[in-house]
Design a protein that fits this description.
Order of helices and strands: HHHEEEHEHEH
Radius of gyration: 22 Å
Number of helices: 6
Number of domains: 2
CATH topology of the largest domain: Nucleotidyltransferase, domain 5
CATH superfamily of the largest domain: Ribonuclease H-like superfamily/Ribonuclease H
Number of strands: 5
Distance between the termini: 55 Å
Strand content: 15-25%
Oligomer: single chain
Strand order of the largest sheet: 3-2-1-4-5
CATH class of the largest domain: Alpha Beta
Length: 175
Amino acid sequence: MPRKKKSASPFRYFNSSPEVIRLVVMMYVRFPLSLRNVEDLLFERGIDISHETVRHWWNRFGPLFAADIRRQRVSRVRGFRQRQWHLDEMYVKVNEEMHYLWRAVDQEGEILESYVTKAKDKAAALKFMRKALRRHGSPERITTDGLRSYKVAMTELGNANKQEVGRWANNRVEN
């Protein structure tokens, strides 16, 4: 019988405890402090580490903590009934070619989903919206600009009654 592989802890090769590493990274992220300021604050609390250690831990564990926070946030927001999405598309240049960047932003301004296509049509809008709905569930309302592709895609998905179109109503995603 094959053995089950245990997921290895990302802290396994570090001499400091995971709680100290998390504290150091969160202090650096949460407050507008320099690496040396974090070093000084920790020294006052009896933790002697260098600013280079703070930088190394931030580079190593920052993305890990951010992904964990994002995952927790998504699971909390799924149960929130009054969710509102703002959808928009914009031109971006990729390798000297013009493409469309589709984005979905929630009511707090957090980017939920993004998608890049060459076309700005029903198929692209439909694929983008299916991807967002599959990952984040169905919102209470969807605010868009006047693009017809959204209306056609929402009708096909059965969300046409949730769409709200307004000239300045979609400013949250445009910012």
